[in-house]
Specification:
41% helix, alpha/beta, two-stranded parallel sheet, 7% strand, four-stranded parallel sheet, 367 residues, single chain, globular
Length: 367
């Protein structure tokens, strides 16, 4: 719409404005009507005009600032490498120790809530105490890992996922322990997620020690149901994926094989490395139990499905055959072996009948 151009005299206020077209005998009521109409127009138009002027000015200054600053955007791969190279997770000195990694902070216990899930969240300490009592391991020879920081976790995880762990309801869903949802998040961070982050640090460190000494064992970790953007199955952080990415950058390793013998499918690392030719995945699992992740199954390089009730002899026969095939298909520089105790006979989650020995009720449970 086009409005007529008005010219005002500086000596007169606008409501006394006259044009040569105004008839001398215009009535007072007509003048008041014109004046009211002009007031209304100005009242409606002024905010719109002011907004347009401000918006144009903002756009101008934004554009000027952007053009005057150099591009600082870092691509995802460069940012990942930067985070890995600045990490402290490789710092613990293990030159005089056995490459067995464990911390007393691994064990999760809080008012018995951990017993509401069949996963034994204090098994890690019992394993180390057993090894020490049998003389296989000395306390001072164990390597104590550092906690994985937020920057470390961002190597694999999205910020959105890590932020979701600040909600106790989400952590309760991942750990499958409903009462966790009612706990304040600071307590969940301290009693549940901190032990997980310490175990993540152990898994990452294990790759370095294996490179240095030929082998290494992280007593904890193996959270194979967690991927970069989601957790589940008592797995809150993707420690296997983190370990491998650190090995790519810091250890100059380019070929990694994952041998996952947990009775459950390792859908987390499968989703993370599904299209990565540097990683070969051999997963031997029971397809009749959690997680039923059909999408992740498509990413497995070598799939070995063992049904519920599979015996020890049959299991070992299939495993030997699978290892021979894997060795002929891929030449790894690093092997990540995820050893799940849920393949043991009597485990409440695995459903297999392997290794028919047990040290008592609850002594060996799911990994």
């Amino acid at each position: 719409m086009t409005f007529p151009l008005l010219t005002l005299s500086p000596q007169q206020p606008f409501w006394k404005f006259r044009t040569h077209r105004v008839i001398a005998n215009t009535t007072e009521s007509t003048r008041n009507l014109c004046k009211s109409t002009l007031y209304l127009f100005l009242a409606l138009a002024t905010p719109f005009i002011a907004y347009r002027c401000f918006n144009s000015s903002t756009m101008f200054w934004s554009s000027s600032s952007s053009s005057s600053q150099p591009a600082t955007k870092i691509d995802a791969d460069s940012l990942r490498r930067q985070r890995i190279n600045s990490s402290k997770l490789y710092q613990p000195d293990a030159s005089s120790k056995v490459p067995v990694i464990y911390s007393s902070y691994y064990d999760i216990s809080f008012l018995g809530i951990e017993k509401l899930h069949p996963f034994d969240s204090s098994k890690w300490g019992r394993i180390c105490r057993f090894l020490m009592s049998e003389g296989y391991l000395e306390k001072n020879s164990i390597v104590d890992p550092l906690e994985a920081s937020t920057e470390d976790l961002l190597v694999v995880h999205t910020e959105a996922y890590l932020n979701s762990l600040k909600n106790s309801v989400n952590v309760a869903r991942i750990t499958e322990v409903p009462p966790v949802a009612m706990l304040p998040n600071w307590l969940v961070q301290m009693k549940v997620l901190y032990p997980f982050r310490r175990q993540v640090g152990g898994t990452v460190l294990a790759a370095k020690l294996a490179k240095d000494q030929g082998w290494a064992i992280n007593v904890g970790g193996g959270f194979h149901h967690c991927s970069g953007d989601r957790g589940g199955g008592f797995c809150a952080y993707a420690d296997i994926s983190l370990c491998i990415h650190f090995a790519f950058v810091r250890l100059n390793i380019s070929r990694v094989m994952i041998i996952d013998l947990d009775a459950h499918q390792g859908n987390g690392h499968e989703r993370d490395f599904g299209n990565d030719e540097r990683v070969y995945i051999l997963d031997m699992y029971n397809p009749g139990i959690y997680p039923f992740d059909m999408t992740a199954r498509n990413y497995i390089n070598q799939k070995v499905e063992v049904m519920t009730g599979t015996t020890t002899d049959e299991y070992l026969k299939q495993l030997d055959k699978a290892l021979a095939v894997a060795g002929s298909n891929f030449a790894p520089e690093l092997i990540v072996y995820n050893a799940g105790t849920d393949i043991l006979d009597g485990d409440p989650l695995g459903g297999l009948k392997n290794c028919p020995f047990n040290d008592g009720p609850g002594e060996w449970r799911a990994a």
